Amino acid sequence: MPATAALEALTWVDACATADIDEEDVIRWDHDGRTFAIYRSPEGDFFCTDGMCTHENVHLAGGLVMDHVIECPKHNATFDYRTGQAKRAPACVNLRTHPVRVEGGRVLVGL
């Protein structure tokens, strides 16, 4: 299936307002029994990952965001929130990422 068709096949869920997230920040979003983290990059783009650190299941929304990296508040593991890539130990498993689009000042997450 082409990438465009795959994106259209997703269910797009309204997660928050764009104004809810400052640049270089993260918020927690819970939906359908799952926790997600939604980020706003220094360029004003939005990204979404699973909301729990892959190392010890800690909420990432309590962590520090700098540039395109989220640092877990418990053991300082870091991830590139654009790709989910684990960047620093103790995390060695990447985060799952989710597509995001913005419509009418709202952040929508594709699930």
From TrEMBL:
This is MocE family 2Fe-2S type ferredoxin. PROSITE patterns: RIESKE. Gene3D superfamilies: Rieske [2Fe-2S] iron-sulphur domain. It holds the Pfam family Rieske. Its cofactor is [2Fe-2S] cluster. It comes from the Bacteria. Keywords: 2Fe-2S, Iron, Iron-sulfur, Metal-binding. Residues 13-109 form the Rieske domain. It comes from Rubellimicrobium aerolatum. Belongs to the bacterial ring-hydroxylating dioxygenase ferredoxin component family. Signal peptide: none annotated. InterPro entries: MocE_2FeS, Rieske_2Fe-2S, Rieske_2Fe-2S_sf. The lineage of its organism: Bacteria, Pseudomonadati, Pseudomonadota, Alphaproteobacteria, Rhodobacterales. CDD domains: Rieske_RO_ferredoxin. The keyword Iron-sulfur applies.
